[in-house]
């Protein structure tokens, strides 16, 4: 069984690396590692290393860090700008975004968003989402953690998206083009952003604002997809085209 676990960057300057409490509990109690077990550790920023368990108890796991290497970032940085979906759908999207190699997820409240968060809820939710990202990275073997921004409004998300080399927006009403057609008409960009709206879609005003910011309206076929389905469909296509194609 391959074990891939996160270690705080500050621990990497030492030959002996102490894992965070949550990771230590998982390894010692759930996976039941013992001294001598070999694992891979990563710091979330692209560094990874082979390591060996030298101490293991219910609340502490200490590793001896060996060979280290750096995983380069992908040639194309993919960012998902996602209108907050209802319920726990965002947690599913985050898990799969990590597996698909998404660099960043920016949740936001669109005009028609049903899900709304108060300021204190935003901070708490963001902390939980980042834990989900770390768990997903450990599960799938990623060495770079997907960055999760704290939720903001549409205007703030759009301002951030202006910096993308290529910006796409899923739209139902405005004139739009097939995603594959848009992606293949020019060379791979250094960064690409995908904007996905809420259950009731973007308003016409929001789509026009995105177009003025450089976004290209795209469609994912004839069917109307749920917010989380559209996000994962779009990310899968982008990953195929730019990361694994």
TrEMBL record:
Keyword Cytoplasm tagged: yes
GO CC annotation: cytoplasm
Family membership: Belongs to the RNA methyltransferase RsmE family.
Annotated function: Specifically methylates the N3 position of the uracil ring of uridine 1498 (m3U1498) in 16S rRNA. Acts on the fully assembled 30S ribosomal subunit.
Domain Ribosomal RNA small subunit methyltransferase E methyltransferase: 75-238
Keyword set includes Protein transport: no
A Gene Ontology biological process term: rRNA base methylation
Pfam families with a match to the protein in the record: Methyltrans_RNA, PUA_4
Segments forming domain Ribosomal RNA small subunit methyltransferase E PUA-like: 19-65
Protein name: Ribosomal RNA small subunit methyltransferase E
Keywords from the named record: Cytoplasm, Methyltransferase, rRNA processing, S-adenosyl-L-methionine, Transferase
Recorded GO MF terms: rRNA (uridine-N3-)-methyltransferase activity
Catalytic activity field: uridine(1498) in 16S rRNA + S-adenosyl-L-methionine = N(3)-methyluridine(1498) in 16S rRNA + S-adenosyl-L-homocysteine + H(+)
EC number(s) from the headed UniProt entry: 2.1.1.193
InterPro entries, per database record: Alpha/beta_knot_MTases, PUA-like_sf, RsmE, RsmE_MTase_dom, RsmE_PUA-like, tRNA_m1G_MTases_N
Enzyme class: transferase
Location in the cell: Cytoplasm
Domain of life (superkingdom): Bacteria
Main location: cytoplasm
Transmembrane parts of this sequence: none
Record-linked PANTHER family: 16S RRNA (URACIL(1498)-N(3))-METHYLTRANSFERASE (PTHR30027:SF3), RIBOSOMAL RNA SMALL SUBUNIT METHYLTRANSFERASE E (PTHR30027)
